[in-house]
Each structure stands twice: as structure tokens, then as C-alpha cells.
Batch of 4 targets.
Target 1
Amino acid sequence: MNENRTALVTGGARGIGVEISRQLAERGLRVLVAARQLEAAEEACRTIGPGALPLALDVSSAKSVTEAVREAGELTGGGVDVLVNNAGVSLDGELRPPYVDEEVLRATLDVNLVGAWRVAEAVVPGMVRAGYGRVVNLTSSYGSLALMDSGRHPAYRVSKTALNAFTRMLAGELSGTGVLVNAADPGWTRSGMGGPSAPRGPEEGADTPVWLATLPDGDDTTGGLFAGREPLPW
Ligand SMILES: NC(=O)c1ccc[n+]([C@@H]2O[C@H](COP(=O)([O-])OP(=O)(O)OC[C@H]3O[C@@H](n4cnc5c(N)ncnc54)[C@H](OP(=O)(O)O)[C@@H]3O)[C@@H](O)[C@H]2O)c1
């Protein structure tokens, strides 16, 4: 039942995001591949092939989110059925609590938390009206309170903990609507953020997000945090 479904992948033109876009297109979804630069999205769409449509989207700008969702409607003639909030930044330097780089903290939260929230606000009401939706938030084990044992990457960690909280709240609000909301940790994956020595390739990193984005009709998996398709402690 993936045909006729439309997915929006934020940061979908490179890193784990382009692999998520590719795998969703392979499963028969129409995929809106979003990047801050339209040319980057167009280039990614050429490599993915038919079913991929380029979109300019900067999740740190409310105006860009509004314009992108309007453009998505014009391109597809419909709404977004599947949202993958993949866009993310990791900006921390060496500072650890109690020291704080406020600029880094705000910029990180603006993309990793508020960005995901902004895009959800723009597309989830349409999912609720349609009685179908899948929202996947790309998080990290670094955001797990249960596993939090140091202050390395503090802004990044806090942003993903907050994104996890947003995932739980949104899932609770949407219970029974047909919209399933989950968080996916791709694991340490080779990409711009993960670097070249990460043990996992993009295909493996994209697996859990794509699984959650394509949960079949009748599935009631929602409000969860998963890595390797298995639950991870919050
Ligand atoms: N790689 C890992 O080991 C790892 C581990 C755990 C979690 N994650 C999470 O997985 C997700 C993807 O990470 P990645 O490894 O693929 O990172 P990456 O290679 O650094 O790519 C980051 C992506 O985020 C997009 N992005 C950044 N700021 C944006 C903004 N303001 N608006 C829209 N898009 C923006 C970029 O889009 P542009 O093309 O426009 O620059 C790019 O597509 C992130 O949420 C990350 O936190 C990654």
C-alpha cells in the first residue's frame, strides 16, 4: 500500500537522508527530497530516479517550511502521508557542562528540535484529516536519558532528548487517529556527521527509519524509540 503515498524527507539529499529517500522510492512511495539548496535536491533526485521530487527546505526558517509545504502540495496535488524528520546538526565543540556555548545550544535546538516540530505542525493536520500518517524523528542514543553518562556533545544530546520528548507527546496526542509517531536511532553511520570511520553504512543507518516510515495499515507501533528495529531505552 505504499503506492500513492507521498513521503517528505528533510535533509533528504545527502548522508542518511538520501539513503532514506532512495529506499522509500524503491518501496513505491513518491518522495519529496528536501535540501536547503534546491540544486542539491535536484541532483539527489536524478540519482534516485522516478518518484523523487526536489524541494527547497530550511527547517530553521518558519517561512521556508510554509513555502515548502505549499510547493509540495503543488508538486503532488495532495498532502504528505509520511514525514521523516531527518535534518540535523551537530555543532558542539569541546565545552562541557557546566560551561555553555549559548549560540551553539540555540542553533542546535533550532534545527534538531524546533525544525522537526515546525515541519510536523505544517503536515500532521493533513495526516489526521486523511486518517493515515507516519512520522519518524531521527534521534540518537546520545539523547537517551537512560544511557546519558557524560557531557560530551551537550547541545546535540539535549536536542535529541527534547526531540524524544516531542515524539512521545505527539504520539500521545495522535493516538487513535491512524498517525503513528516514532523515533529512530540510525546508529553510528558514515556520513557528513558520522564521519568516515563509523561502522555502519548509510543503507544500514536508513533501515530502522524506513521500517518505521512504512509500518503497514493496522500496525499500532507508536510512541516508541527504536535502534536496529528493537526498542531502545528512553
Ligand atoms: N551519522 C550518524 O552517526 C548519526 C547517528 C545518530 C543520529 N544521526 C541523525 O541522523 C540524521 C541524519 O544525519 P547524517 O549523519 O546524515 O548527517 P549529515 O550527513 O551531516 O547530513 C545532515 C543533513 O541535515 C540537513 N540539514 C542540516 N541543517 C538543516 C536545516 N537547517 N534545514 C534543513 N536541512 C538541514 C542537511 O541538509 P543540506 O543538504 O541542506 O545541508 C543534511 O541533509 C540527523 O538527525 C542526525 O542527528 C546520525
Target 2
Amino acid sequence: MISRIVTLTGNVLQPRNWEVRLGTPLCDLVALGQPKADTSKYLMGGPMMGFEIPDLAAPVIKATNCVIAGSPTLFPPSPPEMPCIRCGACAEVCPHELQPFELYWFARARNFGKTQEYHLFDCIECGCCSYVCPSHIPLVQYFRFAKSEIWSREREKQAAEAAKARFELRNARAEREQAEKAERLARASTARSSERKPASAVASAAVVEAGVSGALASEPAVASSAVDADAQKKATIVAAMERARAQRAAVQPRNTGQLSAQQQREIAAIEARRAALQAESPPDTVTPPERAAE
Ligand code: SF4
Ligand code: SF4
């Protein structure tokens, strides 16, 4: 489809149907109809359902069925909007048997849920209700406003749901990756421990064997070293006692300078006996000199 039939009518000298290529600027199309001097606006669509074209640089599209040149005579300004008197005229002319006055109230109160309950989206925006309304209420404009608000909220809701789904998917992916990583690490750790196990088992077995054999071999050594330590301890004690005795003997006053020859002979005999006794008795049972002298 590269062209379509477009009706050009209204405040023009040459009203007729034109076959127009899609994409043709509307200003070129309306120029073919020779608009009159008092033309004030252009509508796309019918006189009741059409909407004003804001800029004639817009192109002809697939939905462009009619262009109406308007003037203040053809489209006089709407009288001021008055309150709804609930006459029901709008409901009588509705081709879809809707309740336009109810839809109007709910749309005005921004109660969009109720407008949907009253089948707002069944409205084809024919404009009959607005046309017959004695209060000059632009009912179709209210219905369009309600529909656009519902669509906008629906888009926001879908965007929020999509964001929520993305968030949940992301969380699930993160958890799955974390679990997979933990599993990989656990598998690697198990593999490493199983690789290390034979070597460590051999090493530990060797250590155990070495420990057992070492323990068995070291028992006599430990026993002999204990005996040596006792003997060394005793020898040290005996040596210390000898040193102490020698010191005592060295510092002991003899008082033999003033003695007679007889007394010195007796002392010499006593010393000889003591020495003989010390030579006979074992080192650890040495008789104290004082006792021996007695
Ligand atoms: S025709 Fe207008 S005034 Fe009458 S009920 Fe409908 S909206 Fe209200
Ligand atoms: S504009 Fe909608 S509510 Fe009004 S008469 Fe047409 S279909 Fe019915």
C-alpha cells in the first residue's frame, strides 16, 4: 500500500476525493482543494470524531481518511460546559448502549476502575453523546482522557512487572552462580584432598612405623641414660662432700702448737685411726670426724 483515497472537504473551493501517496505533506493536499480565506483550522477525520491537525507539515498516513477545512461558520465555538442534568439523552443515542453520563462521572472523578466496569473501552468515540448533550459536555474528550490514563497506568504496571521479573531473574541467576561456584570449590577441594591422601597416608604410616621402631630401639638407651644420670648425680654429691670436708679440715684450728710431745703423739695416733676408718668405710657412709674421734 503506497497510496489511499482521502476526502478533502469543508471550507474549500474544490471538495473531492484524492488518491494521495502515503507520506505526502498535508499542506500539499489541502492546497489542491483551494481553501477559502476564512479557513481557521483543519480536522483529520469526521466532524464528530475528527481531531484538529496541529501542523500541516504532517504526512498522509494509512489512517488519513478525511481532511476537513474548518471555519468559524462551519465550526462555531462550543458553548460553555454546563453540569450534567442526567437527562439520559446521551445513553439513548449511544450505538453501543453504554451509559455515557456514568462514564463521564467516573472519568471526571478519576475513578478509572469504575469506568472500565462500565465498559469504557467499548466506546468507539463516535461523538453522538456529545452532540446531543444539552449541557454541552465534551463527553468524548472525557472518555479519551480516561482511556489514555488507563493505558499509561497499564504501561507503568507492565514496566514495573518487567522490572520485577528482571530483578527476580537476576537474583536467581546470582544465587545459581553462587551455588555453582560453591560446588566447583567443593569439588576442587575434594579432588585436592584425595590427591594428597595417598602421599600423606604413606608418610604418616612411615612416621608411625618410625615412631614405633624408634620407641622400641630407644627403650634401652633411655634406661641406660637414666642409670648414667643417677651415677653422675651421686658422683657429683660425693665430690661436693669431699670438697667440703677438705675445706673444713683446712680451716679447722688444730691448737697443737702448745701441746706436749706425748699429746702430739696421741693426736697423731687418732688421726691415723681416723684415716684408716675413712679408708675402710664407703664414701656415702663416711663417719663424721667428731664421732670417729670419740
Ligand atoms: S446528555 Fe449530557 S446532561 Fe444528559 S445525561 Fe448525558 S451527559 Fe448528562
Ligand atoms: S462516544 Fe462512546 S459513549 Fe458516546 S455515544 Fe459514542 S460510543 Fe457511546
Target 3
Amino acid sequence: MADVTLTNVRKQFGTFVALENLDIEIKSGEFVALLGPSGCGKSTTLRMLAGLEFPTSGDISIDGRVVNDVAPGKRDIAMVFQSYALYPHMSVAENIAYPLKKRGVSAADRKVAVQKAAELLQLEPLLDRKPKQLSGGQQQRVALGRALVREPKVFLLDEPLSNLDAKLRSYMRAELIELHRRLGKTMIYVTHDQLEAMTMANRIAVMHGGKLQQFDTPDAVYNRPANRFVASFIGTPSMNQLEGQLDGALFHVAGHSIPLDRTRFADDLGTGDYALGVRPEFVAIGDGELPAKIRLVENTGHEQIVTLELTDGTRLLARTDAARRLDVGQNVQIGFHPDAIHLFAPGEEGPRLNKNDAASVIPMRSR
Ligand SMILES: Nc1ncnc2c1ncn2[C@@H]1O[C@H](COP(=O)(O)OP(=O)(O)O)[C@@H](O)[C@H]1O
Ligand SMILES: [Mg+2]
């Protein structure tokens, strides 16, 4: 068990700033996802924790000890990569035992450790096979076994499921959640897949452009996104963000006015440009004042995603029942659930301006 802390970490490659002002405190036993688009600095962060890269400035500590100058092998961590790189000529048992062999652990002790890891990962029937006789999911489990066998304090996983097909990914997600529950170890999991982060992690560090955007529970990043980037990155389809003008308790968009409950927002908001955010599940078709035209209806079987166009050409999405009859070209009036409205300052990283308690979880049925 170990806590992991990054304090004011900065990482430059030459003149390129890959990470700045990174402050993350991970509690012992926590499952934390580092989530963000490709190139945002997730792997660099993980590699610094592993000791494979060094911060340009700032501190990294594991279990209360600053490890900036501690070699990877002495950090008590294990890392699992996207490409699991098993040794093809070795059996599953030999692959799992390899890190122990390298450290001079005796054959008898290796056998016990391999047996334990194999039990945990249900690999016992496969111990004598070679990697090429295994499915992708089984190979990934062997890679996990190889990490597990050293009994590290901290597991670092870099997109470990991204080479697997969708069905296997969802199966492995469940396995990893279960594994974390059983081991109780600190796990830090890099992914660009919000579904993985939302379903697996206790907390999610959302990153963008080398900066931490928000570090909070899945519920909070979904229902109380810190800024427009988080609001658009978390959720499929994304939260609608309408550019408009705030004037007292009215938000003007596309030549119409949406009344707001001003008590839900910061008191010092002036008149001017803001963005109104509302998730597609809280856009009501046929219940509201805003005129719109239906442009597209996508029925997934259990719901419909409806593309709507306002009179000024602005598009937004609504999510409705699959059974509802909606026609492309139809003119409708739409409205937004008042408790589900977010206000943001302008700009991509414009902060959310709701009072902190506002717009937490609203029951889906009330849409
Ligand atoms: N060794 C390196 N030299 C130069 N630039 C690098 C190096 N490693 C990563 N980068 C750059 O740093 C940024 C973050 O990379 P990375 O941490 O791999 O992103 P992610 O894992 O989020 O996709 C990218 O722009 C990448 O090109
Ligand atoms: Mg990466």
C-alpha cells in the first residue's frame, strides 16, 4: 500500500513543455485514471512515476519518500504497457516468473509466487502454454501476472486494454476492477477512453495540453465539470455548449431568451458572453420555448440521439426514448431542465460558474 504524490511537476522535452504545474495526490489503495486526449501527457506522467523519465522540476514521492533520484527497480512499482511484450519462447509460467528469476529468487519460491498469481488471474490451466497459443485477453492477463508476481506497492498501467476488441475490453475492465478490489493496491491507469476511466476509477485526473483540468470522482467530473474542456470530453455524446449573452436572469441565444435560476450561479456574473452547457439527456423536445428543427434522428435501439438546429444555425443534441416518433425536418419547441444548466466563461478552458452544490445528480427519469 502506498500513496503517490506529484508536487508542482514540470516536464520539458527541449523547449517543448509537455507538463506543467502538475499537482496530484493519490491515496493509498486508490484506483486513479489519468484521462485525456492523445498527446496530453498521460504516458509521460506515468513514466515519471516509474522512473523512466525525470521531471524537469518538481517532486514525485511514493509512500512519503521523494523518489526523483531513485532508480526504477528500487521504487517498488510495476508497470503494464499496451503492448504486453511477452517472451515468445517462454511458457506462461516462465514469463510470469521472469522478474523474480532476474532478482535471484529461488526456484521453489518462484513456483509458489507464480501459482498465486495464476490463481488470482485464472491462468492455471494455461501455465504450460506459449504466448502464441493464447488469445489477446489471455496474453494481457499474463502481462498482469508478470507485474503482480513482484508484489509491488503501486501498479502503473498504460492503456493496457487498447489492443483488445470491444467485447474483451469490457470483460477485462470488470476483471481489473475485481483485481483491484482483491489486492487493494494503489493503481494508476492511463487511458484516453472515458468509459474505462468512468467505470473503473475511484477518481479521474482529466488532463489536456499538459495541464490537469480536474481531479475528482467520476460523478463529479460528469455532473460538475470544472471547465468547458472537461464538459466536452466527458460524456457521449458531449454536453451541448451554446454561446450566448447573459443579461440578468436571461440567457440570449439564437434570438431567444432562456430564463435562468440565478441562485444556482456565482453572484458576481456580469452582462456579457458566456456559454450555456446542457447534457443531451436534459434537452426536452416539445417542452419549452426555443424553436428548433430536427435535422437527424439516430436510433440506437434503446434511445434516440436527435440533432436539432436553432434558427441561427446552431446545432445541439437531445437524447430521447427510442419509442418516440420524431421526423427529420419537423419543427419543434425545445427546453432545458433548469437544474441541469451549467454556465461557463468563454474560451476552451472557461471555468464553470455554477455554485458548487448546483447541478449534481438529477434523476434520469425527470428529463
Ligand atoms: N521523449 C520525448 N521527446 C520529445 N517529446 C516527447 C517525448 N515523449 C513525449 N513527448 C511529447 O510530449 C507530449 C505528451 O506525450 P505523452 O505523454 O506520450 O502523451 P499521451 O500519453 O497523453 O498520449 C506529446 O506531445 C509528445 O509528442
Ligand atoms: Mg500515451
Target 4
Amino acid sequence: MALKNPAQDLQELADAVGDLQKNILEVVYEPDARKTLRSFSLREAARWIGVSVPTLRALCAEHGLGAENGRSGSRGGLLLTAEEMATLRKQAAAAAAAGGRKRRLLPGRVEGETVQVVASMIFKGGTGKTTLAVHFAQYLALRGYRVLVLDLDPQASATTLFGLNPAAEVEDDATFYGVVGGQRTMAEIVRPTYWPGLDLVPANLALALTDFEIAGRAKLEPRPIHLYLRDALRDVKENYDVVLLDCRPDLGMTTLNALLAATGIFVPVTMSQLDIASMGEFFRFSSFLLEQLPQFGLGEEGIGLDFVKLVINRFDPTQAAQAQCHHWLLARMPDWVLRTPMLQTAALGHANAQWQTLYEYEPDEGRRRAYNRALEAFDRLCFDLESTLWQAWGRKGSPHALPSASTLTRGGAHD
Ligand SMILES: Nc1ncnc2c1ncn2[C@@H]1O[C@H](COP(=O)(O)OP(=O)(O)O)[C@@H](O)[C@H]1O
Ligand SMILES: [Mg+2]
């Protein structure tokens, strides 16, 4: 039996889902329906800042920072907010002599180093673009970089992970769509998040219209259709060390704009036959698009890409076929493949169930070991991504090594 009024029915469905989402937000983020960031143990904070636990404890005492962990049932010790961690990082850096150590404590850009605009991109959905972009953004913030995440996908997964309801809390023109239409500037739509040092340009469904908007404008104004994003970023990007673009799963105008705005691209793929085929098509089509650009007045010299890296996702080293594929890719094109793959992990599902990332999630004791293994794998991955940025900046040496996540449990109670 045909639906009598499909448009109205679908609208009703949309409203019901919107109510459900609102409900979930209220339950998950109670009491005030706002997402917040948990505090970090002294051990965690020392690990992220790059100092020893005793040094950090002394700094906390000196500056009167940190609060005793008063939560019942949890382990004792000092707890620090992310804001306090940022302050302590500066204090630790101020005490360090100039040089490599200072640079590792305050790893952000210095004069002469340009902002890295990194796109998480491939035209297939579900390969881990958002997971990669959001985890890397939070990792970078914990390491002391200033980061902007730009959600370019109308599905708005990154926006949702940052605790916003795209339908209810993001106006249509407060997205890249509004920038293309000329209603807003990028600077006007950047919002702070509950993560210090990490800002967000959110998305909502209106972004789905961006490609039509760009195509429509091409007839009215002489503006190059592929440079909206690059131009719009010009007035905000200097506030950051890294801008991450979470792209939509296609190669339309918005994604073309991301390609032209990017200084680097991470392409998350799984080692499934379909993904590999899709990846090949992605590179073929990207290459075709770039070849067309001179027609629009932009030569290849206008493309400022420092790197393109495949990031193998949902990797399971016990699957011989996957391990072989990874090995083959590394042997055949070592410069194009990130050495550390993103492991398939159930911990991501547990964190997602609470609308959190691995860098936000705090497991109960029963899950801590499995969680630490997942965290360790993501840390290694993000360290590799961070090292790629250091190379792009032309830095010698590498970022400070992050102690293993297993050190977080050793020793236990009174950090
Ligand atoms: N390595 C992984 N292990 C387990 N689940 C994963 C992994 N990577 C992604 N996922 C899950 O797969 C789903 C799709 O990932 P997502 O990052 O949203 O993909 P995309 O942005 O490419 O569409 C999400 O539910 C995410 O939590
Ligand atoms: Mg996504």
C-alpha cells in the first residue's frame, strides 16, 4: 500500500527522531543536558604534558591547582581539569631551558611554520573519517596544540560527538553553507567546545545544499568554485596550529573545496576488497579533478599539499589477509601509508554508547585493561599522525614520546 502523503510522513519521522535525540542528550549529559569533559588523574595529566608525576605534583602544590578526588568508589589522588593541565603545561615550559625540551612541552607552531589544514577524506561512508578526525583533534588538544575542527558532512557526526544537536542547536547559516551563501564569515561561526584549545565549526543538514549553492553562484559571480573554503579559512586559521576537516563521503564541490584548502590528507580505509576498490577510484577521480583546475584559473602550483597518507582502519592483525595487504601497501608505497593502523576495537563502541570518544571515556575497572589497549593503539596512531605534521613543518626530531597507557594503571591508588 502506497503512503498517502510521504513528505508529511517523513517529516513526522524526522520530528520523532529529533525528540529521541533530545531525550538521549538529556539522559546522557544530565543534570544540565550539556556535554562536559571529565577531569584527569595526576598520572594521566603528567603523561599528556610530558613531565614526571612528582614534577607535576610539585607544580600543582606551587600553583594551588588540582582537587582531591572525592568521588565515591573511585581511586584517590589529585584530579585536574583540562584547563588546569593547560596552565601547568605553560608553567612546566617556563621552567624548562629553551630548546628541544621546551618545544616538546609547548609543541605548537612557531614563526615560519604554516597552519596545517588536514582533511579526513575518502568518498566512501563508514570508513572512519569522523573517528579519525575527532580523536586526532582531541589528542592534539591534550598535547597542547590549538585545534579547529570543521565539520563538512551534513550528517554532522563530529558535531554530534562534540555534544551539539545539529537540528536543534545549529542554525543553517552557522555552518559552511552560511559562509558559501555569504550570510556569515568563518570567524563568526567558530565556537569553543568543552575541550580547552579545541574549537568547532559545526554542521547540520543544510550543508547538503552547499554544492547546489556553489554551482548556482558560479553563474552569478566570477568567484572560483573551488576556493570558497580556502578563502574563508584565511581569516581564522592563524589562530590555530592545526585545522581538521571532517569531509562528507563524496567528491562534490564541498569536498573539492576541502581538497584545495588542505595542506595534508588522511584517507581512512579498511582492508576490505570494496574499500580498496573505492580508494583506487577516489585517487583516480581526485587526480582527474586536479587536472581540470587549470581551466578554472588555478594551476598545480596553487595546490599546497604537503602529504597524503592512507590510514588503515578496523585493522585486525590476526586476519592474515589484512596483515598481508597492510604489509604489501607499506612495501609498495612506504611514504603514502601510515605505519600504524587504526585497530578494530570494541572500546570505541563502548565509548560511543555514551556519546564519547576514547579520549573522553573513563571505563569502569572491569573494562580498564581492554580500554587501555585500545587507547594505546589510538595513541600510537595519533603519534604517527602528529609526527607527519612535524615533518610537514620541517622540524627535526620527533614529538615527545607518550608513555604507554598501561602505566596509567600501574601503582594504583594514590598518585
Ligand atoms: N577502528 C574501529 N573499531 C571499531 N569501530 C570503529 C572503528 N573505526 C570506526 N568505527 C565505528 O564505525 C562507525 C563509522 O565510523 P565513522 O568514523 O563515523 O566513519 P565515517 O566518518 O567515515 O562515515 C562508527 O560507529 C565508529 O565508531
Ligand atoms: Mg563521518
